Amino acid sequence: MDIFNVFSLLGGLALLLYGVKLMGQGLEKKAGGKLKTLLSAATSTKFKGFLLGVVITAVIQSSATTTVMVVGFVNSGILTLGQAIGIIMGANLGTSVTSWIMSLIGVESDNIWVKFLTPQTFTPLIAFAAILILLLFKKDSKKADTASILFGLAFLMYGMQIITGAVSGLKDVPEFTELMGMFSNPILGVLAGAIITAIIQSSAASVGILQAISLNGTLKYSSAIPIIMGQNIGTCVTAMLSSLGANKNAKRAAFIHLSFNTIGTVVWLTIYSVLNAVFKPAISNEAVTPLGIAICHSAFNILTILSLAPFNKQLEKLACLVIREGSDKGEFALLDDRLLPTPSIAIGRARTVAVKMANESVNSLKLAFETLFEFNEKKAKKVRELEEAVDMYEDSLGTYLVKIGNANTSESDSHEVSKLLHMIGDFERLSDHAVNIVESAEEISDKELKFSDDAIDEIRVMIAAVTEILEMSVSAFEEDDLNKALSVEPLEQVVDRLKVEIKSAHIERLRRQECTIEMGFVLSDLLTDLERISDHCSNIAVCMIEIAHDSFDMHEYINHLKAEKTKQYEKDYAFYRDKYSVRRSA
User: Fold this and answer.
1) What is the DSSP string of 231-265?
2) What CATH topology corresponds to 337-585?
3) Taking the complete model, does pTM exceed 0.70, yes or no?
4) Would you state the pLDDT for residue 379?
5) Sequence spans of domains, the chain
6) Are 270 and 303 in contact (CB under 8 A)?
7) Cβ neighbours of residue 30 under 8 Å, at least 6 residues apart?
8) Per-residue CA distances from 149 to 56, 145, 183 (Å)
């Protein structure tokens, strides 16, 4: 083996790792929102959680990634620690799927039909099918996901072939044969498997390398089995690193993954070593095959699950005993980077935080309205605190949504990210107007100004209309209710009309010297804030409607709505116009 073989080995490993990642991403995008449905199954029984772990890991082709996701789910409050245990166990079995796919590298036969199962035959066909799909369906994102899956499989298998060719010469190197023999020492084998897997952070790739090496005939079952057990420990490193900075339950989930794999390895390595020493089975000294590695990998994981599944509670207690303290981040823990590999889940968490942000903005405005006619310093302070909190929401959500947008998202997920990014700007502006209203209230209080009774009645009518449009738009967003969203624009038009009518009434009072110019300035600022609040509510509703129709041009939609008024629009407008009429209060 020379330096060129080393280059080939590194290149093959790169293709193998990239293939696993690409295939996983394609399968994940193909599943899309179904992952949310699958996730809900974990909340009922531990067995369903186990099956979920198997399915998700089989989809994304990485037990380490699944466990990182679980750590994120626990950190965000999506899963409890108890629910996470079943998924972690399932992930260990789900990762075996990749080893079975890669075991095809060892298929050899002169039969023409069996030859179609060999990577040398189907890999180029898969790659060709993938490029055909991309060329024929350039604008079809779902077909592109299918192509991604096929390309990933092609890269994976081609990487395996390169690795196999690179290490094939090692069978003639006595030192390498001696090294493989050393791993029959169980402790050395476990350490080798754990270290290699920890370095490349992929148990699938680590098993693939082992399967490629097995083709040169130098690796025996007695060496392969401890290495396979060690690989299960090495894959825990990724989840342990991801739990840094997470809350205590997320750290406990990562620790459960480590303790589950470590205890399973210790128990079954001990049993294997005793049985091997007592019975000395002939198979121990036989050369292992890629298929044999896949069987051993699956068998070890199944045995570990069967032996430790009854001790779920004890594993949870052990994790709680070892990890006692930790600080939580409140609602911002929902915005967990560990969820980014599953955009649909990450978007769901971002949406939950956006709903809280919207409600904080509404609360700040309602408090601000209360300060107008009876100023209260505590309420004014609370409004400013809420505005600062909403600013933090916008910063955190904006950053998180951009991260999701930079990921490989599906078309529907991309639309949802766009919608949320536009909406959080409107939610933030709502709280800014709350501060503006408090400042107007402070000016009225400090200068001992007083609105006329008619002006007070008119302002109360407009505040009532604005409060309804606030609650309607936020409720439409929270419930994803397009019918409510459609009712926002007619009420926004009524608020615009109220502003004009109240200004006209104020001018009449000025002529009759029933009001002052100074109060007129305060009233004008207040009316502007109220009118702009309704504009932001309109933006929220229109954004929902346009995204639902695969479009995003708010101005065009509003202009069309005004030009082509529907019967429902006219009916809603008439209802709100009569409900919020300043003529009744004059």
Assistant:
1) HHHHTHHHHHHHTTTS-HHHHHHHHHHHHHHHHHH
2) Methane Monooxygenase Hydroxylase; Chain G, domain 1 (1.20.58)
3) no
4) 92
5) 3-322, 337-585
6) no
7) 142, 145, 146, 149
8) 15, 6, 35
